[in-house]
Design brief:
Largest sheet: 10 strands, mixed
Number of domains: 2
Order of helices and strands: HHHEEEEEEHEHEHEHHHEHEHEH
Shape: elongated
Distance between the termini: 24 Å
Oligomer: single chain
CATH superfamily of the largest domain: Aldolase class I
Radius of gyration: 22 Å
CATH class of the largest domain: Alpha Beta
Number of helices: 12
CATH architecture of the largest domain: Alpha-Beta Barrel
Strand order of the largest sheet: 1-2-3-4-7-8-9-10-11-12
């Protein structure tokens, strides 16, 4: 099934809505009315926009899709993390994960909710620890498909999302145009109204795009998925390092830090790969150079990948070396391990199960 040719209403900024209403002979305030219906009242059909003239509602329906994200599956973890599998208009699958702040005990209510959203269907960058790229890259998400993940999860969960991280399926900086548009809608008061400093964009290390982001005035946060403190180790884990080795990448980060704010490092600890004392010392040098905070994340096992997480003792040792070197570092006790919450896992399992069922049905025919 092909995606509809019409653009999504959720991809339009207030400026574009204003231009559209004026072009159709409507007063400019109609744009804010539309935005309120979509983002404040969360209607799902043009007929529900009762303060718009019926003829103009028909015009909107003729030009713009008003899709809802179709929820295929929801998994809940004992730590209250939830994973959502969505089917897009063209049949492709993407994932989002809702991560509560750590409560005192599992199952308690949280006062802060973070959503990890996807920016692409699949991924072309092939990080060796990640399930997102195992089936390759299919396409970019448009801004509306990104925004709809937040709207759908808030609608099902009944609670306001406080933080957004672009750390789900895909490389956000490889979809920069739609990423920026989505951030604009998520951030603006007429949109979802989430503060820029509560929005984090994660990248595997696309150096030219990092430099480009340095010129963007929006004060969102940038997280670099480093995962190796030398070229030898990082290239083993992340093929993108062969295109943008650490020298090139860190020069781009220098440029970014000089013009904007701090960079955070995400560092997934993988047993016997990047968890040595030597890697910790090299990582500390890089962090001091950029005044970067480090989030250490024990590896979340992915079926079919031959990696494992270090022991708790090794995790703590790596963490302590960084702190002894004067680096601000946190050791995350990852969420959702019991529901395969790492990027792309649920989509991969669902696709493989569907393929297996199809092959079985064909063989039985």
């Amino acid at each position: 099934m092909l995606a509809p040719a019409k653009p999504s209403l959720h991809s339009l900024g207030l400026e574009e809505l204003t231009q559209h209403v004026r072009q159709n002979g409507q007063p400019a305030y109609r744009a804010k009315q539309i935005a309120d219906w979509v983002y404040k009242r969360r209607v799902t059909a043009y007929d529900e926009m009762t303060d718009l003239p019926s003829a103009y509602r028909e015009q909107l329906a003729a030009e713009f899709e008003f899709p809802e994200a179709e929820v295929v599956r929801v998994l809940g973890s004992k730590d209250t993390t939830q994973k959502f599998l969505f089917r897009l208009r063209d049949g492709n699958l993407i994932e989002s994960v809702l991560i509560p702040a750590s409560p005192a005990l599992y199952g308690e209510a949280s006062d802060r909710r973070t959503i990890c959203v996807s920016s692409q269907v699949g991924c072309a960058y092939g990080c060796k620890f990640c399930a997102s790229g195992l089936e390759g890259w299919t396409r970019n998400l448009d801004a509306g498909e990104i925004v709809q993940q937040l709207i759908a999860v808030e609608g099902m969960n009944g609670e306001k999302i406080d933080n957004v991280v672009f750390m789900g399926m895909g490389e956000p900086l490889a979809n920069l145009k739609n990423l920026r548009r989505a951030i604009h809608i998520i951030n603006e008061p007429w949109g979802l109204g989430i503060g820029a400093r509560h929005i984090t964009v994660s990248t595997s290390g696309l150096a030219p795009q990092i430099r480009e982001l340095a010129e963007d005035p929006t004060q969102f946060r940038l997280a670099l998925s480093l995962h190796g403190a030398t070229d030898e180790v990082r290239s083993q884990i992340m093929p993108v390092n062969r295109r943008y080795p650490l020298k090139v990448l860190l020069e781009a980060c220098d440029y970014y830090v000089a013009r904007k704010r701090r960079i955070m490092f995400e560092y997934i600890l993988i047993a016997d790969v990047n968890d040595t004392d030597a890697q910790a010392l090299e990582l500390a040098k890089i962090a001091r150079r950029l005044n970067a905070k480090i989030n250490l994340i024990p590896y979340n096992t992915v079926e079919g990948l031959n990696w494992s997480r270090p022991s708790r003792t090794r995790q703590d040792r790596f963490h302590s070396i960084l702190r002894e070197q004067g680096v601000v570092a946190t050791l995350r006790r990852e969420k959702g391990h019991d529901i395969a919450a790492a990027c792309g896992q649920l989509r991969l399992q669902t696709q493989r199960n569907a393929n297996a069922s199809t092959m079985s049905a064909t063989a039985s025919a």
